[in-house]
């Protein structure tokens, strides 16, 4: 494996991690930005959707989230699908958990830390086994 190929591989995997981080941060922020004052106000109508999309607290995270989706689709052409979706989605889950615990001031339990460790180790196994197959 030459330097250029190794650089491209790290570029792609780093990009997938970045996508997961962007998704993980924006998901809880979009949830907070889309909350209505009163649950009785919730209805599926054009007025409801327009009211959500006019809130800056929802719109900015939504735009960042969609930019991450565009980056993900670009990177899908450069990485194996099995590892690409696993890396991005697992990073997103871990970062969403961390972001929600910070925003909602929820403590992270030892079970949660153990779960994150298992997810991280599982992704490591997926990536390394995929790399061994391509050698």
Automatic annotation (TrEMBL):
Q: How does it sit in the membrane?
A: Multi-pass membrane protein
Residues spanning the membrane: 12-30, 42-64, 108-127
UniProt-listed InterPro entries: EmrE-like (IPR037185), TMEM234 (IPR018908)
One Gene Ontology cellular component term attached to this UniProt record is: membrane
Q: Does the keyword Transmembrane helix apply?
A: yes
Q: What's the chief localization of this chain?
A: membrane
Q: Which UniProt keywords apply?
A: Membrane, Transmembrane, Transmembrane helix
SUPFAM superfamilies in alphabetical order: Multidrug resistance efflux transporter EmrE
Pfam families hit by this protein? TMEM234
Q: Which domain of life is it from?
A: Eukaryota
List, alphabetically, the Gene3D superfamilies matched: 1.10.3730.20
Please state where this protein is localized. Answer: Membrane
State if Transmembrane is listed as a keyword: yes
Kindly list any coiled-coil regions of this protein. Answer: none
- To which protein family does this belong? Belongs to the TMEM234 family.
What is this protein's name? EamA-like transporter family protein
Can you name the source organism?
Tetrahymena thermophila (strain SB210)
Name the lineage: Eukaryota, Sar, Alveolata, Ciliophora, Intramacronucleata
């Amino acid at each position: 494996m030459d330097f250029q190929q190794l650089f491209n591989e790290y570029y792609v995997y780093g990009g997938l991690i970045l996508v997961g981080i962007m998704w993980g941060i924006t998901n809880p922020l979009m949830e907070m930005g889309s909350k209505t004052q009163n649950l009785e106000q919730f209805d599926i109508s054009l007025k409801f959707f327009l009211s959500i999309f006019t809130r800056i607290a929802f719109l900015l995270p939504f735009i960042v989230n969609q930019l991450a989706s565009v980056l993900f689709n670009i990177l899908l052409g450069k990485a194996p699908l099995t590892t690409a979706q696993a890396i991005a989605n697992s990073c997103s889950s871990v970062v969403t958990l961390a972001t929600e615990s910070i925003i909602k001031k929820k403590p992270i339990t030892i079970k949660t830390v153990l779960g994150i460790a298992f997810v991280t180790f599982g992704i490591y196994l997926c990536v390394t086994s995929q790399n061994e197959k391509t050698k």
